[in-house]
């Protein structure tokens, strides 16, 4: 079983090193324009892991079989393709997968964000929807950090990560393969659930936008609990109610953000403000450095825009979500409704057609 | 000529004292529920003015002819009625004016906010639209502050204050009376212009909402220039473009917020961020104390809501304004579209009817 890990950021480096240490036949590849780290790792002839490993082996210097800028080369015989790049960089890789990937390879997107759906929509348009198994987890299994040249710290490996394939009928088949590597992956209903379960859509965007003045003046500054306040919590709740209404059409019993937080962190809290303030892991954080931070430029176009535009297709009122998205559009002078992963890009159209509003607002 | 000043806040106290010192027959009145200051001033038997006076007389202890909670009593023979109360408190006074006011009295609202239009709409509904002359200035002529029991500081008296009556055909008639008292009032096209010229709709709301985290944690704190940042400036510009598009339908050549700032403060600035940062008067300020501050609870429902709902009646896209209003609605759990001074309350309906969206969104 050959594994290709695509992407040379901390996630791809950590995953490829950890899997190599576990004994898998793994290659690490990134396209030329993102290959600075690839060149470095090749010159160092490997990667030093610190912290944890999924095999339980002592963290050590290790070496993926291949470290290369030649993405097509590693794709041609990979059985599992891990796409470990930010959402906005995915399309260059998915184009290469479609062109060079081995038929029936399993293609995993690790952080929700409606990535598997967009990939599958690309395949559908080409009439090749059965050529690959598109899979998604709700969040990246590793918590990692680059600590120096060629060094990656694996701070943690999550226990329980939602997993689904698109179409969901293939989730079992995909899981029987991937569970050999990651037994932590748990089957859920579908890739709607993996994408809707990522808390970033609410947790990253709203506290960042409503702290715009201080973040632009001082960021990155040391803060805690996202510097959430009671009114910010109320806004998160109003937006989350819309998210849950939409999710109800896509998988059964979607939990609210508050319920999710209380479950993950084993909390008792009456509202989002209390819940976020109660998470010890949020005690020490650094704020974003400005409005071009991924909490805005990734989580708005790749989390909130797909959710809101799906809502509009379903005829669900999303005016609270729209407000948050439009604040981000104005701040950055970008029409995220168009540049983001909207319902059209993931091939979502309500049947029967009940939409009542224009999908795309002029900026 | 008898003048009734309604309202016992710093504005009403300053105006009634200044006019009394000028020698006018002036009464100060406030309804029982806002009468703490009235009782105090009556017990002190007058008001001590500090700072400036409009007559040029030495600031001194002075006494309006009547200081009372009996609003109907002062209304029955007042030729000029000054409504010096916050927007949300106006309706109790306008109801009393309609019931007890002398026919043909001039009723002045001093801070825009579509107050004259709402008053006139009330009169229209009662078929009494010619019983009073509804007038409005764009901003309050005095800059004032209460400095102690019975003491008011007049920090400044503005030079050039926009004035209009509704209907605008009566502006000349009204001005011939009011200019005897305030020669600083200058005729403009109509009360649309006085209401649209108040900069609060943009200047107060957006920097406050987008500084929510810090204001809720620390407010009131000492800040400067509204703690505006470049992205906040861009949001103000996006909202202001919509405001100007709407204003173009209501009076000729509406200036942008940036043009207004540059003119008032004699600045050269390329954008709103630069302009606001250049105003020396904004060097030392105190931030709002929270999201219930009038920068949100008055300027959203009485400035932005009327503008946005008029825009919708005119078929103009207001999605940027809507975003700001909806953030305020979510933060305070109040549907300002309904509780605020919407187009319906000021009797505005586009002819021909070209509106395409629902006026009121459910919260």
From TrEMBL, chains A, B:
A single MF term (Gene Ontology): oxidoreductase activity
Domain Opine dehydrogenase: 188-331
Domain of life per record: Bacteria
InterPro entries given in the database record: 6-PGluconate_DH-like_C_sf, 6PGD_dom2, NAD(P)-bd_dom_sf, Opine/Lysopine_DH, Opine_DH
Record protein name field: NAD/NADP octopine/nopaline dehydrogenase
Organism of derivation: Elusimicrobium minutum (strain Pei191)
Phylogenetic lineage: Bacteria, Pseudomonadati, Elusimicrobiota, Elusimicrobia, Elusimicrobiales
């Amino acid at each position: 079983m050959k594994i290709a890990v695509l992407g040379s950021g901390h996630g791809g480096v950590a995953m490829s090193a950890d899997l190599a240490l576990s004994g898998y036949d793994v290659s690490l590849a990134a396209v030329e324009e993102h290959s600075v780290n690839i060149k470095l790792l090749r010159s160092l002839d490997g990667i030093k892991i610190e912290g944890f490993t999924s095999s339980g082996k002592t963290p050590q210097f290790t070496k993926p079989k291949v470290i290369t800028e030649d993405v097509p080369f590693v794709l041609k015989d990979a059985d599992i393709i891990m796409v470990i790049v930010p959402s906005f960089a995915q399309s260059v890789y998915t184009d290469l997968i479609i062109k060079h990937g081995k038929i029936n390879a399993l293609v995993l997107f690790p952080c929700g964000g409606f990535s598997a759906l967009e990939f599958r929509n690309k395949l559908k348009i080409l009439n090749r929807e059965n050529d690959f198994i598109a899979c998604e987890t709700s969040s990246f299994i590793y918590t990692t950090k680059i600590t120096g040249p060629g060094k990656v710290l694996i701070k943690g490996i999550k226990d329980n990560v939602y997993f689904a394939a698109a179409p969901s009928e293939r989730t079992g088949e995909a899981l029987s393969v991937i569970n050999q590597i990651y037994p932590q992956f748990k089957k859920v209903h579908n890739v709607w659930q993996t994408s809707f379960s990522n808390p970033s859509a609410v947790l990253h965007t709203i506290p960042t936008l409503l702290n715009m003045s201080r973040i632009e003046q001082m960021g990155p500054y040391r803060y805690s609990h996202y510097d959430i306040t009671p009114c910010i919590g109320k806004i998160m709740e109003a937006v989350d109610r819309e998210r849950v209404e939409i999710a109800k059409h896509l998988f059964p019993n979607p939990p609210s953000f508050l319920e999710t937080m209380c479950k993950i962190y084993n909390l008792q809290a009456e509202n989002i403000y209390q819940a976020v303030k109660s998470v010890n892991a949020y005690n020490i954080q650094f704020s974003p450095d400005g409005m071009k931070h991924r909490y805005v430029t990734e989580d708005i176009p790749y989390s909130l825009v797909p959710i809101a535009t799906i809502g509009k297709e379903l005829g669900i009122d999303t005016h609270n979500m729209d407000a948050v998205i439009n604040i981000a559009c104005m701040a950055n002078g970008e029409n995220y409704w168009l540049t983001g992963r909207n319902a059209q890009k993931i091939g979502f159209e309500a049947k029967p057609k009940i939409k009542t509003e224009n999908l795309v607002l002029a900026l």
